Every structure is written in C-alpha cells, then in structure tokens.
Fold:
Amino acid sequence: MKEFNRVFNGTDRAVYQLRALYGDYGFKQYRMSKFEKYDLYAKNKDFLVSDNVITFTDTDGVLMALKPDVTLSIIKNGKDGAGVEKVYYNENVYRVSKGTRSFKEFMQVGLECFGDIDEYEISEVVFLAVKSLETVSKDYILDLSHLAVVKGVMENFNLSTDGVKKVTAYLAEKNAQGVFSACKEEGLSDNDAELVKKLVTVYGAPDKVINEFKALDLGKCANNAIIQLERIMVALSALGVSDKIRIDFSVVNDMNYYNGIVFNGFVSGIPTSIISGGQYDNLMAKFGRKDRAIGFAVYLDELEKLSSGANEFDVDVAVEYGSLSDVALINRKVKEITDGGESVFASKKIPEKIKYKRLIVLGGKDNENA
Structure:
C-alpha cells in the first residue's frame, strides 16, 4: 500500500480505485477518440454543460470537435433494445473552466447504465455514487432528489411556465422565501405556497423526509414518486449506505436533461459537488430511443483541490554528497534507504524545491528535518 500511495497521487489513486469499483459491478470500460463530429454537439447543446466547443476542420473538410462530453458519444453508439448496457469511462474532456472562463482539459471518470433499466439498476448506480465518494474521503454525503416530486408538486398547483422557472431557480438556490413569493405571485394561497416551500425547508434523513412528504397531499405524480423513492431507499438501506444519504428536493440539476432520481455528492474540504448525476431519459428520447438511462460523473478537477496539500514531502530522504564522493558508497546508501521502504533523492546539491523528511550528507552529519 505504501508503494501504491507513493506511485499514485491523490487523483490517480481515485481513478484507479473507481475503475476497479465499477468493474466489480460489471461495468465495462468505454473508450472514445478525442474527436467527434461537431454535428453531434451542435444538435444536442441543451444537454451540454457548456455550449462552447473547440472545433477544427479535418482534412476531408468535416467540422470536428474536441469532445466536451462523453455521455452523448456513449448514447449515440449504444444499441437500442440491447437489454441493459453498463459502461464506465475515464476520459479527458475539453470545456470552459468555471473559474478562469477559458478552455481547459479535464479528466473525468463516470459511468452510464442504459436500456431496459429498472429500480435495481437505479439503486445500484446510486449505491456506486456513494461508494465513489467513499474512495475519495471518509467524510462525505450524497444529496438525493426525485424530479417527479418537484414537477408533480408544481403541476398540482397549476403553476405557469414562468412560475415553474422561477420556483425551480429559487429551489436550486435553496431560497425558501423566494419559492414562497413566486407561488404567491402565481395566485396560490398561503397554505399552498407553504406546502410548495417544503421542497426547500424539509430535508435530511431519508426516513424523516419521506414520512413527512407521504403525509402531504401532493397530487398523484408526486405521491407516486415519493413511494418509488421510498422503495429505492429501502434497497440502499439494505446495502448499508442510507446513513450517508440525505433527501434534498432543492437538488434539481438541469431539468431539461434529467428526470426521476437525481443526486449530487460532496466531500469535506470542497465547497462544490464532486459527483453529479441522475436519470436522463429525455436525452434517450432525443436520440429516438424508448429505453431509459442513469449515470453520473466524478469531477476530478475538484479532487485536485483536496489533494493539493496531501503530499507534504516529495521524498522521505534527501542524500547530498560531495563531488569527490565514492559512487559505490552513494549507491549502497541509496539502496539501503529504498530497501528500507523509503523514497530517496540523491544529488550533489539538493534543489530548494525538493521537500524531504530527512537529509543525509554523505561524509558529514546526518541531519534530521522531520
């Protein structure tokens, strides 16, 4: 394990462990080219994180793009009516960074499950999202929602298209007063507006939230979704991960893209979600497919913030020797250190940028710098 941690940095370790995790559950690796025809992304801009795409003209005159997304390619190449397909990917994507507003290359790991999926596959993907968080940190939480509950509540009170947009935006901001005010603008009574506001104010442990919402009259669509959510949580509870899940109906992600179960995953030390996913039957329909899909992505660029200070030292031992030192002596000392399970950097002059635990000066004093 020590050699594993030494060879791989925090992000590399996460990639290795995630790939092993997904493989254990029958997901096969999907590989794609760095390039796709731009037409694929132009026709599906509504399903992209950003519609800014790097393009170039190929030698045959076809407009190509550096891939900004993996899911579109997976669905395009999938086979309709092929039962259930389970794939994972470890690919670089190219999109505009939220921080710099310039193009950046991102390493992304994720999985997709599509076809004739049922509640088992849905619960399995949510379970793997939880286990993915666990590979990164022991202090994590998965916020889980069901968009049919959110949509059902708004349909039950006949909110206008503009009202739905406003309420959804306030939900995403966790702005309870904004939700209440938007509902009042739609002509809802105080009692009804308060009920819609519960989508923000009632959250937390799955049993608590589900029981409270089951007691409400939310309309047929929302009520059925709550029952489905309860069944999925029973399955996840049997897997021992329910204590790492909280129900939060303010998780709406992109309602043009997602439907049904959606979720975001967080770890301590990073203020934004490092996992985002859910069901995306709408995208399947866009490709003319009648089957369903669910998946998620792990944003490894966010993990770099967590691991940036993890490796305090570059090596365990620095060996500094004089220009006339015996080469055989240096080799023996270096071998002695590595045989003892420590890493070593040996040179006539140790660069200032090298961080080490101990310094050994051959022919001089052995200085401890722990």
The mean pLDDT is 87. Residues 315-368 form one domain. The chain has 14 helices and 15 strands. The two ends are 22 Å apart (CA to CA).
